[in-house]
Amino acid sequence: MSNTKSTRPKRRFWGWGLESDELQPMEVAIVKGLMARLGLPAAGLPTPPHESEFVLPPPRIAAPAALADVFSSAPHDRLTHSYGKSFADSVRMWNRDVPNPPDWVAFPANEQAIADILDWASRENVAVLPYGGGSSVCGGVEPAVGDGYRATVSLDLERLNRVLEVDRVSRSARVEAGALGPELEAQIRPHGLTLRHFPQSFQFSTLGGWIVTRSGGHYATLGTHIDEFVQSVRMVCPSGVLETRRLPGSGAGPDPNRLVTGSEGILGVVTEAWMRLQDRPRFRASASVRFADLPAAVACVRSLSQSGLNPTNCRLLDAAEVAFAGVGDGRSPMLVLGFESADHGLRAWMDRALELVRDCGGQYDTAAVERSMQHAASDEEAEHRKGAAGQWRDAFIRMPYWRDPVVGAGGILDTFETAITWDRFESFYRGVIDEVAAVIRRATGRPGSVSCRFTHVYPDGPAPYFTYAAVGSDRADLASSLAAWREIKLACNDVVTRLGGTVTHHHAVGRDHRSGYERESSSLYRDALRAAKASLDPRGVLNPGVLIDPRDRAVGITGALEPGA
Predict the structure, then answer these.
(1) Of 343, 375, 407, which one is at a domain's C-terminal end?
(2) Domain carrying residue 149
(3) Chain segment 457-485, per-residue pLDDT in tens
(4) DSSP 177-191
C-alpha cells in the first residue's frame, strides 16, 4: 500500500475533520439524543469505515513520467478525493460505496506543474477536477464525469499555501490559492490584518475554493461573499494564463474577476489572488434576542438590514431551529445580533439596534449586552461567546462532526439555502416548509423536521438556510437513506426556484444543484458561459458536468443524483 503524498495532517476520508479528531463526551450525548429524537437506535455510535474495506480499481492511465513525483495513487489520497462533504457523500462512504475514485491525485508545487498537468490532460482526454479543500456539499469535486473521458485526476493545491506579499498601506495581500483558512489568517495576523471571511468550513477550505464557489462567510452584512474581497486573480487555463489587474475598482467593461468567481473550476485553476484585507477588530458587542413569534422577528431583521447599521451578525433562528440547535429557551425565535469594529466603540450602534429590537417586541438580557461591550477582541471572544449566542456559534462550527455518526446510523440530515426578497419571504417560507415536509413524508414514510435560520441579510431580502432531519425508509440499509435524500434534494431544488428564490446563496452549484440552476439561469447565458469555457478549456477537461456540459460533450447530471448512485 503506497503512502499518502499529502503533507497536511491526515484527514478523515469518510467524513468531516482530521483522523485525530474525537467527539467530546458531551457531544456524544448530543449525538445520541439526536438519534433518539429521530427514532434511531442510540445504544452506541456506528463504526466508521476503514481504508482496508475499500478495493479501488487501478488507475486507468499511466501518470506522465515527467510528473511522477506529483502524482499519487495512494488509497488514502484517492479515497479522500473521491467525494466532498455533503450528506450524499457521507452516506456513500458509510456504505463503503466509491464507484468513481479519481485515478490519480496530483499535488503540484507551482504553476508550471499545473500547466503541464492541464496540457497532458488535454492531449490524453483526462478530466481534471480542482479539489480546493474538498469541503464541497453540492457534488463539486466528485470524479463522476460520465464515460467520455479516459481517466480522472483530482488536483490538490495544498503545496501552494503561502502569503506571498502584503501591502499594509492598501490593506491587501497576494495569497496562493491552496491556503486553508487558518493558514491564511496565521500569515497575515502579524500585520494586524484579517480577511474577515469565516465560512463554516473555514478550517478545511481554501482561498481558491472560496473564490470559485463564491463562498459566503460568517458575517451577516457587508462582505458577505468572497467576491467583495477579491482585488485581482490569476488563473491557469488549458489555453494559457488569465490574470486580472489589481485595482480598487474599474469601469472598463464587464468585470473579468466576476468571470472567475463562481466558475467552480470549469474554466481554469486559480493559483493566486490579491485580496482586500481589514484591520483586526478591537471592539465587539452582542445580544441574544427572543421574540414572541416569527413575523415580529422577521420585521425586526428587515428594519436592521435597512437601517445602515450593518451588524456583523444578524442571524435569526425560527423556533424549530432553536429547538434543533438546543440554544435559547428551545421555543422562541431567536436573533443573534452582533457588531464589531477595528476603529471605534459600538455603544451608539448597539443602542440604536436595540431600539429597533424593542419596537418589534424583542426581549434581551441588558446586563449581558453590557458585558459584551466591556471585553476587547484580544480576549479571544471568551466573553463574547457566552450565553445563547455562544452556544449557537459552537453548535454551528461543530455540527458537521455531529452529523457523521447520525448519517452512519441511518439518519438523514441535510441543509439547503437560498435568498428571496422581503416582499415574498412570508409566502416563500411557508411554501418551502410545507412542501419539504410533505416530500420527506412521501420519501421516507415518516414525518421529519424542517427548520430555518437567516445566515445573511440584505436591505432587499434575507438568505434563509433550511435544515431538515428524517430517517430513511429502511434503517438497516443506508441505500434507502440515499434514495430518499435524492427525492428530497430534487424537490428542494425545484421548490426554492419555483417559488422565486435562488437554488444556492453560497454553497455553489456543483452537480447536485444543477437542476435548479438550469431553471434559474437563462439558456442564452449558459450558452455564453459554454463559449467562454470553449475558449479557455477547448477540450472540455476541467470539472465536466459542473454548472454546464462542455461544448460538444454530453455529460449530464452525474454523481449523487444519478438513479442508482
Answers:
(1) 375
(2) 25-155
(3) 999 999 999 999 999 866 568 999 999 99
(4) TT-BHHHHHHHHGGG
